[in-house]
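Notes from the 1:1 (GR / supervisor)

We went over the backlog. Supervisor wanted to see one worked example end to end before approving the batch request, so GR pasted a single chain during the call. The sequence is below; no edits were made to it. Supervisor asked that the structure be written out right there so they could see what the output format looks like.
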Amino acid sequence: MIMGTKTEKRHYGWTIVVCCVLIYFTTSVVTVSLGNFVSPVVHDFGIQVRQLTLTNSIECAVMAVLYPVAGKVLNTKKLSIVVPSALFLMLLGMFLMGSYHSVYGFYLSGVMIGIGSAFTQFLAMPLIINMWFKKKTGTALGICVSCGNAFGIIFNLISAQLIVKIGWRAAYHILPMIPLVLALPYVMTHLKSPEEVGCRPYGAEETEQEALTVSGSENAWGVTGKQAFHLPMLYLAWLVCLCYSVGSSVPNYIATFATMELGTSVELGSIAASIYSVGSVCCGFLLGKINDRYGVKAGMTWGMVFMILGMGGLTASIGNSALLIPACFLTGFGGLNMYSVQAPLVARTVVGDRHYSDIWAVLMIGNSMIAALVYSPIGGIFDATGSFAGAFALGMAMYTAALIFGVIALNMSRKYRKTHETAC
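Structure output shown during the call:
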């Protein structure tokens, strides 16, 4: 019997969601490779914040270079080999961070983590989910991202405790072992493409029926890559992604902001970052459903409102530290979810489903390059001014601009589809 039919209790796509959750479980460990570690490493090495956070910029730059290759590999090679191998490389890069005595070693690990991330994170997750889901795409992606944020909370707290109790070097050695044992074996044995399993993507039949009703063709609508890069709506959608890439980098400094500007302990800085992640967990589930039910414009509006509330609250907490925790929670309802969930949904809505994976792989080059260019300078705002207030203003401006560009792009896409649907 072919899997994925109505007689099956559970579509294999939901097993893929479990795999993606475990991938996020693994990458969330690597995400804390800076975070709580910034203050102790900067202190021990006697360097500036931006020198260490340049590691993140290197990761983003390496990802960007490899995205075209990763897009092709993920669509043509066995996922059960490619993704676990990339995850292992990321964990190895983090493990080695505990052995370095110079910041240049961190840059080497940044290269390793960047290579692995190209095949596992911001490009891979939307492609894998899109490969398996033609309906409830936002919900499935939101579940994965929310779980990843929940794991981020756990590992932020664990990393803070390990740093305090056994030191940052030992913490770097212990943390990567957790997903190596608990997550990678399942991903290796269950992450497959629909062709390997022998079933159709979730909701494929309904999508084809809708396409047949609307246009008389069973093929899903979508512009080709060649067409897309000659259309202004594609570049406006790209600007949306770039704005989210810049804006979502700002909350990554919450722990550093709490410890270095507000003067809190490492533990309280970790709690602040974890509260941000709690908001992200709540948002991920809601954001996916909002997009599926009300459309991507509603999702973008949601992100802008909560980013302004959150970043505004963080700015106010400079004068009143009691506002730190509620501001972190509100920021979580915008934050990284807009980059990891909203951005790919906006791009997919604008260009259509047929050639989305190829187009998204190209867009991710720019997304990661801009993140590589701006992440360290965001830390440099504190080095130059002694405050993160300017960084918080930047975050609010980026999410506002994303909504404006997004609405224009979606309106242009709707008009284009009405006039070119039958031709595509």
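Supervisor's comment: The CA atoms of residues 40 and 181 lie 27 Å apart.
Batch request approved.
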